[in-house]
Structures are given as structure tokens and as C-alpha cells.
User: Fold these one by one.
Assistant:
Number 1:
Amino acid sequence: MFLENYGFLIVAIVQQALLGMSLWYPLMAGQLSLASIGFYSLGGYIAAIMGTSPAFAAWREALGPALYPVEWLIALAASALLGLAVGIPALRLRGIYLALATIAFVQVLNVVVLVLDVTGGAVGLFGIPQPFESRLGYLWFFGPLLAVMLIFSARLTRTVAGRSFMAIREDELAAQAMGIPTTFEKVRAFVIGCGLAGVVGAMSAPFLNTWNARQSSFDASVACLAYVLIGGARSVWGPLLGAALLVALPEVLRPLKDARLIMNGIVLVVACIYLPQGIAGLLASLRRREAA
Amino acid sequence: MSETILQLDGVSRSFGGLMAVGDVSFSVQAGEIFGLIGPNGAGKTTLFNLVSGITPVSAGRIGFLGRDILGLAPHKVAGMGMARTFQNIRLFAGMSVLDNVRAPMQAFSRTGFFSDLLGLPASRAQEAQIMATAMDLLNLVGLGAKARAAASSLPYGERRRLEIARALALRPKLLLLDEPAAGLNLAEKAELSDFIRDLRSRFDLTVLIIEHHVPLVMGLCDRLAVLNFGRLICQGRPEEVRCDKSVIDAYLGDSHAAPRT
Ligand SMILES: Nc1ncnc2c1ncn2[C@@H]1O[C@H](COP(=O)(O)OP(=O)(O)OP(=O)(O)O)[C@@H](O)[C@H]1O
Ligand SMILES: [Mg+2]
């Protein structure tokens, strides 16, 4: 009962958490990017085209359900390559300029998608085949990916590359003076995020059944960033905590009708002011206080 | 005659109309402790930034280990074996003391990204190696017990020492120290001289040090260069420099005319 009613919500939280995570990696190297939603869109189009276009009929025939992992891999490769192409010039910019460049990139992508035939123009693509009967079934897609990415993040902080990312975040100039190739590492962190966003897009196309340029709106970009900042950019759990709160909140507050939007805004503002390290930072300091 | 590690030829840098460093030439020999002194704003830190590739020169040449390093990115210069500390301490504040020292060791990593993520045997062996080296360095500067603390939680003197340990993690041939005694108390200053000499012999280092504290500089350095308004006004052994008229006028002034060593 509960699971059926809330199936969509649960899957949406996990899916949005993964998108938040795709911004978490560049942030780990101190880079504020809003490009993820563009790669999410790209991945979604790849899955939508492979799922609906007559050109891929033979693939669908031959692969059956194995088509889905093939879509993910192609989305991963395409997003990582495009991420490399965008990242190398964009990551020469710093701070707010990088953020602006990534917003511009998403806008360009949206225009391209609107004029192309394969992407269905403004209408987009619909009738994307769905592997699961219920919404909750998609947890079989997003759940394992979330688990893998959480382990990936936790491991990353203990590797040579992870330490380089964090050193750049803490002090880019000192990192350079300590021999760390900062541009290379920033591109690496960015490309990891792009690849993840592409795979999430490829998984989301069947989940949402239709795909169009509205998937990569500016609002969606900002929402992904909010998950990380509210959840905590310095904790592996940050994007999940942030997405859980921000995706569930409007549903929980539904009885409040229009006032819920105000509540939503208040939560954001309060979190920004009082939780500079996000929810994860708050939990960590509570735990420390208990231990002391 | 020993080998030349660092060679500056007519190095200049201006900011707008201000000549921060003007036509400076000197060379540092392997194994030397070479001091760089001069009044506030003389251009000492700027010279460090030029040498380490952080600020581009306006004119001149800089050779390091026999290679022209002009235009080389700072991380490449560092990778050749030049490490530095900063006058205003630039640690990786949000990272642990241990990670501050482990981060520069990426330069020696022989394992791949995915091998590290999966914790394959080669990566695990390398991590153990990195850990052992980092702990040795932290013990050397007396911070072994604080390895897990956040760098930002350290008191001032310990931050200075951590910055030196972080620089040493790069296994440098040339170590640049920008006012390492600043903010230290007298006892700490006295220890610092011995510590730097000890580092030189232990790691086969050449040291280029900026320092205001005259007794420390005179007692520690093999040779000195004196900057004033961006110009090199004098260089030589400490006793030569101390007696140079222009140095006394420009820098040491009356109160420091006869510094005790
Ligand atoms: N990035 C910069 N832009 C503009 N002016 C600069 C810059 N860096 C240094 N300067 C100027 O260059 C001159 C030399 O500064 P520098 O920091 O090298 O002096 P210093 O010898 O290290 O002095 P101190 O003993 O106070 O550390 C100063 O007048 C300073 O204001
Ligand atoms: Mg200075």
C-alpha cells in the first residue's frame, strides 16, 4: 500500500540523489558546475532513441532486456567524451565563470535538441518502452547504481586522485605548488560527474516514458545543486540526504496547499544560513558532541 | 666547485608601474643554505613566486637543475624537485594533517585510478608506502600524534611545521622557505636553525630561505643576497654582507648595525 503510493517518490529521491552526486564530484575538486543536467539530457536522448527509433529495431530484437545496460554504457561513453570536450576549455575558468559557462553549455544543448529531427524537436520522444510494470520497479535500476556510487565516493576520498581533488578544493595555488596537475585533476572530477549524469539520464528515459528539452531546464540544474549544498558537499551522504529532504518535502507538505511553496523556500534559506556544511555536517557535529 | 642548482639572470617583474623585482641575478649551489633578506616590500616573496613559476617573469631567465624553467607550469617545476612554503601559510585547511602530507605524494604514484578505487594489491602496497613515508615526515616535525587532526585545528607554530613536512613530501632538491620563523617565539626560533641544518643533511637539500630575523639568518646561511626596492644590492657570505655599507643603510639600519649572532 505505502510502497505503491510512494513508489514514484522513493525512486524519484534516489534518481535525484544520483543527479546531485554528479555535481558532488566536481565540487570535491572545488569546481562549481551546473552542466550535469545537460549530460542527463544527452543520456536520456540516447536511451529514448535506442528505445523508439526504427533504426534500432534490430538491436531491440537481438538484445531484448540487455538493451538497457547497453544504453547505459553508450550514454556513459558519450557523456564522458562530451564532458572531456567541454571540460578542458571550461575548467580554465574559475568560480562563477565556470558555473556560467556550464549553464551556457546546457542552453546550447537545448537549442540543438530542439532543431534536430532524431530528438523529436520541441515535442520530444515518447512511448519509450518500459521494463517494469510499477514505478517502484525502477529501484532495480537506480538502487544498485546509488549503492555503487556511494561506495565509489567513499573509496575515492581514500585514493591518490581523491586527495588531489580535495587539495585543489582547499587551495588551488598551494596544490599547484605541491606538484598537483590541477587542470588534469579538475577535468577528471568533472568527467566523472558527466558520465554519471549520462547514465542516470539513460535510466530515466524509460522511467519517465517520454523525453524532451524540458528535462534539462535551468530549474532542474539548480535543484541538483541544492541537493548537494543542503545535504552537505563534504559528505558522501550529502546528495542523498539533500534529495530526500527536497524531493519529499513538497509531498509531505501537500496538505498545506499553496503555503507549502513558502515552507519549501524557508527550509532552503534556513539550511543555507544555519547549516554551512549541510545536513551531513550537522549530523557529524551532533555525533561528535555525543561522543565528547 | 659544486654544481649550480638555481640560476637567475636579470630576472625582473613589474606590477603596473611598480618594479617589484628588477634585474636580479644570482646563483645557488647544491647543498647551500642561501638567505634572501631585505626590508618589507623589497620583492622577496615575489622572487619566490617567479622562481616557483606561480608568477610569470617580465624579463630574464631562470634555470633550475640546468634546465630553463621559464613558462613551465608551477606543478611541473615542483615535480622537478622544487618545493616551497608560504609566508602566509597555505595549508589544505579542511583536510587532515596526514592528508596534507600525503597529497603531494601523488607525484610518485605508479598505480592507476581504477586500481586505486578497487584497492588492488599494487595500490594497497603503494598506500602503505605513502602512509609510512607520511608518518616519518610527521614524526620528524613532531606532529605524528596529530596525524588525524584537521590541519585547521593546529596552533600557529605547528602549522608552520606541517607546511615544511608537506613540502618535504615532494622529495625536493631545492626547498624554498618564506619566513619560516615569522610568528614563532624565541625558543622556537632557536630550534629552527638546527632543524633546517638537520633537514639539509638528512635529505641532501639545498635551501633558499627568506627571513627577517637577523641573528637567525647570519648564523644559519652560507651565503646571502640582499634585496632593496626590487634590486639586488649585495651578496656574499654573512660577514661580508653585514659589513657592506649599502646594506647597513638600506636594511639593517642603526639599531641593527651590529647584530649579535
Ligand atoms: N600580485 C601583485 N600585484 C601587485 N603588486 C604586488 C603583487 N605582489 C607583490 N606586489 C608588490 O610588490 C612589492 C614587493 O612585494 P613582496 O611581497 O615581494 O615583498 P617582500 O619582500 O616579500 O615583503 P615582506 O617582507 O613584507 O614579505 C610590494 O610593493 C607589493 O605591494
Ligand atoms: Mg614576503
Number 2:
Amino acid sequence: MTAPAALVTDTAPVLRGWGLDDRSYTVRLGAALMGVGLAWLTDRRAEVQGPVLVRHGRDIVGVRAILRALADDALHPGWAEPAAEGWEERAAVIGERFSTLRRACLAAGRPETGSAAEAWTLLRPLEDRLAEQHEAGAAFLGGAHPAIADLLAFPAAALSHDLRLPHDLVPATRRFIRALRAWPGFLTMPGIAHYQ
Amino acid sequence: MWTPIALSEDVAAGTAAPARLGGAEIVLWRDGDGLLQAWEDRCPHRGMRLSFGFVREGRLTCLYHGWQFDASARCRLIPAHPELKVPGTIRANPWHVRERAGLVWVADAADADALPTLPDDTPMRGLRSLAVRRPRAAVAAQTGIGAGGWIWRDGALIGLHGADDATSMLHLALPQSATAEARRRTMGEATALRDALEAA
Ligand code: FES
């Protein structure tokens, strides 16, 4: 299966982001999986302030709001479906907090004391939810099709080893990573490979 | 001693998965036909974790420089030297591995004959593996799980292994005949058990 071709036109939304920033990655990944064309402008400020999407002459900030805007143009309506039980909000909190912790760890050159404990606190509800979903026959937080909640949670899941939470301890999360990685159009970032 | 370290179904055909046993890093991988291997999670070339690698045509391929290892743990191809007949001494370091009762069990060479410590081969299906932030000895003492690393409780098989000094993992499996309702209930009980163990 190949990804739907995402056409980058003059009127395509523009992402002002940073290549090593997990939030900028979330937006690039979302656009690629949704099949939405996205132009890219490198902007180092995104490393701290987060990415900005310029769409129809407006600046949109906040990863969740950006993904919501992109989902309006998505080819498959599943992307715009809100995940059940507040999981879109919860995933947004997990993603933001993880990003802050990860930046602190990378700036320090090593995982800081306490970051692994907080990573556990953040990622355990995700692991529990994904285990329950798997038992119910669903690969993603809301169902069988990925949605915004899954995109928001994905970098925290896939890069958890940056905070010393190794993947052998979270088998349901590992399964989720594999499922999204196999989705047509998947993109990588440093630390997240695409090989299976 | 054979130790349960994962659910069988958590190592899908054609994939590799990481595990740790007392801090020792292990890669579990299956070829496309479902044959399972357990090796030290370390490439003999430059030490990359083999669990980051990928499985193609019955071989585990290291992500770093692409060395390929077959099911006998021998390196069969070094892409930088495709004509080279790879010496048989270049090989991954295997553990003994078995699948029984829905779980993956490993043993090092010295303990591989200790088969009687495994449960009988009732057809089982894995339910869930979950991490407990407590050392193995503490979890074993609180749950009554013995040195064999497993116990039957309320119709469920519960396996236990210590991932590292501070963290254990519980592995649950139920008979294949268990209803969806029984599986859901046991799932909830497992989460409650984990939370109680950590609160103790
Ligand atoms: S480290 Fe594995 S091939 Fe080089």
C-alpha cells in the first residue's frame, strides 16, 4: 500500500518548525499520514516555542490546534474523529509534557534525575489504554483508524527511551508504535526508524 | 532456571522485540514462519542493539551496518563486503528459548535442562504483560510466586521476571477457552494487582 500523494502547492499550509523538535515532527507526520500537502520552513525558534502553521494567512499555534486544522483537509474522515473518553486532550497533555522533559534532557546531555519517573507517570496511562484497546481489537487510542490523539501521543511513545523508559517495559505501546509506523505515508525523525 | 519474559503474541512474526532479564539485554525475534529466537541484544560488529534491527527473509538484520544473522545466529552477509564468505565465528550470542502456555521462556546454557519448572502445556493465550516498579524479590514475596517464576491463580497463569534491579514484569495468560468477559475481568484484576504491589 502506498501513501496518498500529498501535493505541495503555492497555497499549501506552511509549517515553521525545527527538524529535531518532536512537536514539529508531530505536525509533519500528521500531514504526511493525512495526505495533506505541507510546505516546510526551518525556524529554530520552534525548538522552544513549538511549531507554527501558517494557513490561509493565519498563524496557528499549539500542536493539537494545528493537527485539527490539517484534519479539515484530510482525505479520510477518520483523522478528524475525536478519540473517546477524552483521549485527545490527554494525549495532548502527554505530548506537551514529554516534549518539555525531553528538551531538558537533551540540553543536559543526559536524562535528568526524575525524568524517568515522570516518564512513567505520563506513559503508563497510555500503555494501559493501548492494552485495553488491543484486547478490544483496536490498534489505536480511539479505534482501528489512527486519529489526532494517536499523533499527539506518538513521539512520547516512540522516543520514551530518551527519558530512560525502555520499550521492553511497555509492550502495548510497542505494538502501537509498530501499527502507526506501518501506516501509509509514515515519516521518520532522528530516534524513530521506519523499517518494519 | 527457565524464566518467562514475554507473551508469545507480543513477538509478531517478522519482527524483533527487546527484553531484559536481571539487566541482561535480550532480543526476541521471529522469522516470517513464526520461528522464535532469543539472543543477547548486542551485534557482534559494533555492539548496536539487535532489537533495533529488522527481519527480512528469515534473517535478523542489524540497523547500523546491515549485518545479517540467520536462525543459527551465524552472520551470513556483510553488505560492505558482499562477496565475502563470512567466517562461522562471527555470530550472535543465543539464549535457550521455549514457548509454553502462551509465554516466552528463556534460560541460559547452564539452566537449559530444567524443563520440569515449566507449567504443563495447556493451550493458553497471552493476555497482557505489565511492568511493576518494584524489585522481583518484593513482587515474588507479595504474590507467592516461587523460584520457578510462575503461579496459577484463579484460572490464570501469572509469570514474573525481574527486568532490572528496580523493575519487574508480570505476564498473564488465560486458557484459550476463556470468554471475552473473563479476559476483560482478569485484565482489570492485573492492573489492580500491579497498583497494589507498587503501593505496598
Ligand atoms: S553494529 Fe551491527 S552491523 Fe555494525
Number 3:
Amino acid sequence: MKNEHGKSLLLSVVLFALFIGVWFVATQPKESAQQSAAQDEYAALMGKGAAKSGGFPPPQEIGKAIVTHLSDPFKDNGPNDKGIAIQLGHSLGRVGMGFVLAILVALPLGFTIGMSPLLHRALDPFIQVLKPISPLAWMPLALYTIKDSDLSGIFVIFICSVWPMLINTAFGVANVRKDWLNVARTLEVRPLRKALTVILPAAAPTILTGMRISMGIAWLVIVAAEMLVGGTGVGYFVWNEWNNLALPNVIFAILVIGVVGMALDRCFAGLQKLVSYTE
Amino acid sequence: MAFLHVENLTKSYPGNDAPVFENVNFTIDKGEFVCIIGHSGCGKTTILNALAGLETASDGILTMDGREVAGPGLDRGVVFQSHALMPWMSVIDNVKFGVRSRWPDWRKTQIEAQAAQYLEMVGLGHALQKKPSMLSGGMKQRVGIARAFAIQPKMLLLDEPFGALDALTRGTIQDELLKIVQATAQTVFMITHDVDEAILLSDRILLMSNGPRARIAEIVEVSLPRSRTRHDMHHDPRFYRIRNHLVDFLVSRSKDPKPADETHPPVVRPGETEPAPDTLAA
Ligand SMILES: Nc1ncnc2c1ncn2[C@@H]1O[C@H](COP(=O)(O)OP(=O)(O)OP(=O)(O)O)[C@@H](O)[C@H]1O
Ligand SMILES: [Mg+2]
């Protein structure tokens, strides 16, 4: 077991080194020497030196970008020059707000739907129609009604997080083992105590699965939403650097998005483990 | 006046033409241990659930301690066929859950002590902090018994509590249950498929005919001293007479019991008399 772990880790490292190696070789500067005049002109037009836009950036430039950004993550020199930590803070703030709002709506509603088959059937068509709508499709509507790009971003996160949570909560609550409910009934446990001490822990693994899915989607969506509304956040950062044609920065941001997304997912995996039980 | 009265209890499910059972009549006295035996599907669990208040009968009257049974309550402790422990709670938390429900005003330490005491009683004092998933089937069942006993109900309802256990474990837990019941003079209604278990534990055994339209066909009084043990019971000729009578009922008479007085099944004491010639056939 331990050995297997070591082997897979070694393989990962080897694959990574191989990837960087191939990347390095493929982006050797000699290719950029044969750059066409048109590309030079285009680069000049964009206000950049030829050296900077010489094709796809090699790995060492990404490394440089990583070092530069991480050495001053909290800088704040106006709207187009903020440190990555600040941008991340904005994105995570929006995701957090939207996510918490979604919990506030999805948990009570999911509980009610899960306990009442009648309500479940009545609300099911709405859920089925609303669920597959791309969260970004709500964006124009949100911007029009809310008239605030920040709040619109939060709303989009809310709307995309709410469905998996709602559906999983309702499913988990509806499928609590009858035996446990019967125990609570024979012990004359009051409804609120029953909800908190029997139904909630019994459904918690399912509910957290829903939250984990929601968080995954929310993190996908926030980047796109911030590209649309602009202003702040990692999504805007990516868009801004693309407009500057600063590809190393774009790649750096992509890496950060991936790492943060993984960290969020790990958090929820940990929470899931905390509330899971074996029968 | 008996402690528990069951009068003309009938249960039919919508969609089924014949009721599962009908005109079930029996009583249980305070401190009495009554077992019910019958083939699978005749409606034993349904009767127990009706006594527990978890299910409503279609017809009939159910009174306990002079009051009509309406819904489940803390005056009856139920041990479920599938133990029904909450897997996210430790053993002692499972029992404490019941104790806290019974006495919401108790202090933490008091609840803890009560739970621990009853777990000690079923021999699980060493496993208080374990999760149910770490216990064997017999241990889980004992936690269920402790949870039901710890709320000190007026009556215990046990649905095949030892059904899933091997013979050896079953014997040990039977002995424990016998000891506890003898010490506390608990009133018990229990379902079992095991004839020996019924004889060991009960004062009376209700024999149920096959469904649909099942009924209590006979009530067998177990005329062995209450201080019986599993060991010396096997040397008592009365034990074998009772045993033969029960087996004979299950094998050949449960399908089509004598249409005696429907509402008041005959009470028999097969241990006392020499068995009638026809029951020897088994
Ligand atoms: N919800 C239901 N709808 C229709 N019929 C039911 C329902 N629940 C139980 N029954 C029927 O009622 C009868 C009695 O069921 P019950 O569980 O009481 O049997 P039992 O005597 O406890 O059997 P076993 O010994 O196998 O546990 C069965 O024949 C079953 O088919
Ligand atoms: Mg049953």
C-alpha cells in the first residue's frame, strides 16, 4: 500500500518533468527568430516588444511570472494591477457569499421537499427545468434587475450552487432509514430535535456530496462570470492579462485557478469524511 | 384487570381483499412475558407495531394501563428486528439519546450514568465509546436492548431480537435477557421463530395461524417454574411436552386451526397433562 503510493508519486513527478521538458524544447527561441514580419508588426501594433510575444511562452517565463506574482500577492496599484491574492479574495468572496446564500435556501427547502412527497412532486418540474440552465444565461437578467456587477456575480454563483444542494438534500432526507425515524417516534422526540439529531446526521453525507458538486460548479462559473462583468477577481485577471497579451500571466492564473479549485474540493472531501458513517 | 388489552384487532391493507389478521384477542398482565409464534408473513410484526403505536389497526381496541394506545410513546420500549442503532452515534450516545428523550430535565452526568448502567447490564461496559459498525451482530442487538430498557418503559416490545444471531450468541443473550427480566419484573411482548426460546422466556405463548385472516389459534401456558434455566429446562419432561405441542402446531395445525371460539382462543397447558394421542404424531 505504502509502496504503491510511492510508485504513483514517482510516476507523477516523472510525467511532470517530461511535460516540462517537452514544453521547453517546443518553445526554444530559435523558432521565434524566423518570425514573420507580419507577426512583428502585429506585436508592435499591440504595443509590445517582439521578444515578449514571441510565440508560446517557454516554461521558465511562467516560472518567472509565478515568482513575480507570488512575491507581491497583495499589491494594489489601481484596477488593472492588483496582486493575485487580492483577486483571489474577490473571487472567493463572491463564491462564498453565493454559496452561503444557496445553503440558506437549499437546506430548509430540501428538508421540506424531502419530508413531503406531495411537495416533491409539485416542485419537481420546476427544478427539472431550472437545473440545466447555464448559470451564465442568468447573467443579463441579473445585471438588468440587480444593476450591480458584484451582486450579479454572487447571484450567478447562488443559482448554480443551489440545485445540486437542493436535490441532494431532498434525496438524503427522503431516504433516511425508516427504522431510525421509528426509533425517534417511539422516543417521542420533538420535530426540531428529530430534524437536528436524526435526519440531519443521517442525510449529512448526501447533503455534503451535493455541496461538493455545487462548489465545483461555482468555481467553474465564477471565472467565466468575472470575465463577463469585469472589475475584480481571477476571472477578470485572466481576461485583463489576455488583453495585455501577457500569456505567462494568463497561464499563471490558470494554474492558480486549478490549485484553488483543488483545495476547495479537498476541503469538502474532508468535511464529507467527517460526517460519513458506516452502517 | 390485565395490563394490556387487545380486542378484536384487525388489520387490512388497502388493495388486499382479505385482512392480514382479524379478531385478534389477548391480554397481558403486568410483569408477564408473552411470546408470539407464527409462520412468516402472518402479521406478527404488524401486531407489535400496532402495540408500539407505529401502525394503526383497521379495527379493534388496544388499551394499555387503562388508556387507549394512540401513537408511539415512551411508556413502551421497542427493540427492532434490525437493531436500528444510529450509526453516527457511539454506543453510549445511542442509549443516551433514549434517556435524554425520556428525562429531558436530567443533568448530563445523570443521563450518562443511566446509559452506562444499562450498557453495563447487557455486558457492554467495555464498548461505550465504540461506533455500532465496530460491534458484532449480537453486541448491536444488546445495545438495542439497553436502549429500550434504559428508558424504564412500562412494557417492552421485542421483534425477533435474536433472529440474526448464531445459536451460541443467542443462548448467551437469552440468559442475559432472562436474568434482567427476572430482576426487573418487566412486562414483555416478544416475537420469535424459535420454539425453545419461547419456552425458555415466556409465561404464555400465543400461537398464530397462517394468514391471510390470521388469528390467535391457541394460547399455551408454559407451566415451568419461572426460575428455569436453559440448562435444567432440558431435563424436564414438561419441556418436551410443550415443545412437541408447539412444533406440532407449527407443522400441521397452523394452516387450518380448529374453528373453535374465534374470539377467545383456547388456553392449553400441554406441560401438565399427558399429550393427547394426536399431538404425539409430531
Ligand atoms: N404496507 C403493506 N402493504 C400491503 N401488505 C403489507 C404491508 N406490510 C405488510 N403487509 C403484509 O402483511 C402481512 C404481515 O406482515 P408482517 O410483517 O406483520 O409479518 P410477520 O408475521 O412479522 O412475518 P415475519 O415472521 O416474516 O417477520 C404480510 O403478508 C405482508 O405481505
Ligand atoms: Mg416480522
